[in-house]
Structures are given as structure tokens and as C-alpha cells.
Amino acid sequence: MIKIRIYGEGSTDCGVHGFVTTELLEGPVEVYIRKILSDQEVVEFTLITDLRKEKLDRPKFQRIGKKLGKHGLKAALLMRSALADKYHCAAYYSDGDREQCCDARQEAVCRKRYKGLKDEIVSGFEAARVENSTADEVHGVAIIPMKMIESWLMGDPDAFSHAFPDGGKKGKHKKKHQEQQESCPNQPELDWGAHNDPSSNYPKNRLTRILELYGQTCNRETFCEIAEHSNVEKLRQTCPISFADFYEQVRALSNDSVKESVNGYDHQKNTID
User: Fold this and answer.
1) Quick check: 51 and 257 in contact, CB under 8 A?
2) Residue 172 lies in a domain
3) Which pLDDT score is estimated for 175?
4) Same domain for 78 and 159?
5) Domain co-membership, 181 together with 89
6) CB distance 51 to 68 below 8 Å
7) CA–CA distance from 261 to each of 43, 117, 143, 208, 271 (Å)?
8) Which residue among 27, 86, 94, 226 is the one 20 to 30 A from 15 at the CA level?
9) What is the C-alpha to C-alpha distance for residues 232 and 235, in angstroms, rounded to an integer?
10) Residue 181's pLDDT band (cuts 50, 70, 90)
């Protein structure tokens, strides 16, 4: 069994704990991880949504923590808790880009931002490892959809008809489905638009319009259905900046030969091949 401690703040990304019990109601991220590992491994998730309770109580870690950015510090605290509770993996989730700017559609800019955020998160993982001699046994996975989870969800157009086979074919959605054929973007990671314009290509707005054609709305359950019916190999092709990297990091969890290097990331050079 692979035990994964995952950090994420949004219920539509990494799930949420139930109101009555502490059972984790998984989000699309957990679904993707299970699909990538296929049936080779049994996976158990624990979700953390607030890392403020973790304290920098050791002088050495306090000094290192001051040099880390916001995401780096949180990643360090996550890794530290995973080490203390003997997890196999610490997985840190963050949207890749929520800034509304014209260059968000440029691949080179997106790759640079992705690398910068991943470097910061991995540096946080490394900061926690200096405290523990067995740290190499705990993998760190940086989950950074470029631009956000909705971008990945639009990476396999066939997933919608498979997940909602009756959607858009009957009732009040039939006419709308016939008149308006909203489609998934060819390059989801580069799709962008104004957040406050419902007709824009802002990922959440575009996904909302697509789901309307199937009589669905944006919520955790719907996102999980899309993820469950998505072809992860297809997502590697349509989302080459972030999902392809995420895929390789997750695959490394079932490869005992992988230690320090994950998906071409050299911890000495802090570069991505």
C-alpha cells in the first residue's frame, strides 16, 4: 500500500472531509493518481487543508524556513508531517497560474512559471529532508495544473460523453446542445481569458459552458466523473507542461529504483530536463 499525505485547499481539486465522519471525499486529483498507478498499487490518502498548525520548532529548520517562499514553506511543513507519520509520499497541490495577464497564453511563459513554482515546492521538500536521515524514502510530488484543475479536466474531450452519456440529449438541454457546440481547447494549458466574463476562455468559465451542454455543473462529484473517464495518456499529450510531469512523478511512486530524481528533476542543479 502507498500512503500519500496530500495538501490542497480546494474541495474541487483534492476533495474534502465529510461533515459527519472524517472520511475523505476524494477530488479529481486523487482520481488521477489512482488511474496513473492503475491496479498496480493500493493507495490510501490523507488530506491536509491547513498547515498553520505545524510549527517550526527546530532552530535549523527555522533558519531554512526563512529562505523559502510561501509554497516552499508549506511544502516543507507537509513533508515534515509525512516523515513524522511514516507516509510514503507528500503531495503538494497548487494551481499553476491564476494571474490574468496577456502572456498567460504563451507556452514559454507558462513553462517558466511552472518551473519556478515547482522549484520552490521541491526546495521546501528538501528543507524538511535535512532533518531526517530516512527522508529519501518519502517521495515529494508537486501537483501544479497549468492553469488550474479545470484545464486538465478539458484535456480529454471524449471523457464528457463517456461520463455523461445522456447529457445534452433530452429535456431542456437538447435544444441548447444542438444550437451551441462549445468545445474543449486543443491546448488547455494555454487557454485563458477574463475571470469576470462568463463568455471568456478562462478555464473555469469555459468548463462551465461545456458542462451546461451535458446538464451538469462544476462541483467535486462532476469533476471526479470527468477525471474517472479521462484517458491519462491523452492528457499527457494535450497537457505536456504540467500533467505529463505530474504523471511521471506519480509513476515514480511504484518504482523502487527512483530515489532523489523525479521526472528529470536534478536536486543539485534545480533544473528540469
Assistant:
1) no
2) yes
3) 43
4) no
5) no
6) no
7) 22, 17, 16, 38, 11
8) 86
9) 5
10) low
